[in-house]
Each structure stands twice: as C-alpha cells, then as structure tokens.
Amino acid sequence: LSQNEIDATVDAGIKNADTGVTATFGGVTVSSDQRSLIKAETYAASVAVSLSGGTGISVGLAGALAKNEILGSTQAFIDASSVNSASTVSLEARNKSVIDAAIAAASAAVSVSGGTGISLAAGAALAKNFIGSEEGGAEAPLAVAAGITGSTVDALGAVSLSSLSEQEIQAFVAALALSVSVSGGGGGALAIAAAL
User: Fold this and answer.
1) pLDDT band at 11 (very low <50, low <70, confident <90, very high)
2) pTM for the whole thing?
3) Residue 80 near residue 147 (C-beta atoms within 8 A)
4) Which three-class secondary structure string do you get for 165-195?
5) Of 15, 36, 163, 191, which sits with the fewest C-beta atoms within 10 Å of its C-beta?
6) Are 27 and 85 within 8 A, CB to CB?
7) Alpha-carbon distance values, 158 to 20, 22, 28, 29, 119 (Å)
C-alpha cells in the first residue's frame, strides 16, 4: 500500500499597499511557480507451494494499491494596492503537477500431490491518481490564477497577466497470476489477475 498527497499553496502578491509601490527604474513583476511531483512504486508478490502424498491445497494471494493526490493553488496577484511602474507590470502564475506511478502484483501457486490437488493464485493491482480532486469525487480544484483586484496600476509599458497550468499522470499497472496443479487423482487450478 502506497499513499501520497501534496497539498501546497504558493502565492506571490502585493496586497494592501495603499501607500503605493513605485518602480522608478524597470518594471514590476509578480511571479508564482509551483512544481509538484509524486513518483510512487508499489509492488507485491506471493508464492505458495504444496507438496503432499494425499490431498494438496495451495493458495497464493498478492495485492498492490497506490493512491496519489495533488491539491493546492498557485496565485500571482495585486490586491487593494496602488502600483506605479516606469516600465511594465507583469503577473505570472505557473503550475506543473506530475504523478508517475508504477503498481504491480504477482502471485503463483503450485500444488503437487499423489491424490487430489487444488491450486489457486490471485493477483490484483489498483492505482488511484487524482490531480485537483479527491477520492470519492470531492472536487478540490487546483487553482492557478493571476489577477488584479481593487487596485490602481499605472505603467508606462504593458500590463500583462498570464497563468499556465499543466497536469500529467503516468501510470503503469500490471497484475500476474500463475496456478499449477499436478496430481495423481483429481486436480484443479485457478488463476485470477486484475489490474485497475
């Protein structure tokens, strides 16, 4: 079982500067940059062997589960302030969130018996990856915003606002099950594998 969560808030801003912010040379830049990465590897394996002169039963079970969540916000702002610039005013908010997960489960069961032989192997791997939401469907938007509110901005150059949000999920999920029954009498073998 692997469980990882990143919940980060990255803010850059000018707030309540009612007496003013003045750049007499050059511009004013407000920049917020957040980069979140979850790299998770979860593996499970089981081997069961039964050797019997009579009845032999062998059961092998393996399960791997990984849950990864990235939440939070990235903001660049000017709020309730007065800003004067001899050049440009630029607000930039950037977020890049990546989940890279590898989950695998393998199970093997072998039964060798002189009489009845029964062999069961089951392997299951499950990956749950969320960016900007939580398990169960609860929304927790990954907000990325650049804004000017309740402020006056006086610039000789351009006033620009930009926000960029990039999300990426890479998931490798695999399950393997192998079941073998060798018996002198009746025998049965069952293998079940599931990857979700």
Assistant:
1) very high
2) 0.81
3) no
4) EEEEEEEEEEEEEEEEEEECCCEEEEEEEEE
5) 15
6) yes
7) 19, 15, 11, 12, 73
At which residue do the structure tokens 């990864």 appear?
Answer: 68
Q: Is 100 helix (H, G, I), strand (E, B) or coil?
A: strand
Neighbours of 112 (CB within 10 A): 19
Q: Is pLDDT above 90 for 4?
A: yes
Q: What is the pLDDT of residue 109?
A: 95
149: its two tokens: 């509110």
Work out whether the CA dihedral 178, 49, 61, 66 comes out positive or negative.
negative
Instruction: Count how many residues are written for the chain.
Output: 196
Tens of pLDDT along 57-104? 999 999 999 999 999 999 999 999 999 999 999 999 999 999 999 999
pLDDT, residue 139, reads 72
Distance between CA atoms of residues 61 and 133, nearest Å: 31
Kindly state the helix (H) or strand (E) to which residue 13 belongs, with its residue range.
Answer: strand 2-15
Q: In this predicted structure, what is the pLDDT of residue 120? A: 94
Q: What is the DSSP letter of 133?
A: B
Q: How many CB atoms lie within 10 A of CB 22?
A: 13
Instruction: Measure CA 183 to chain center.
Output: 46
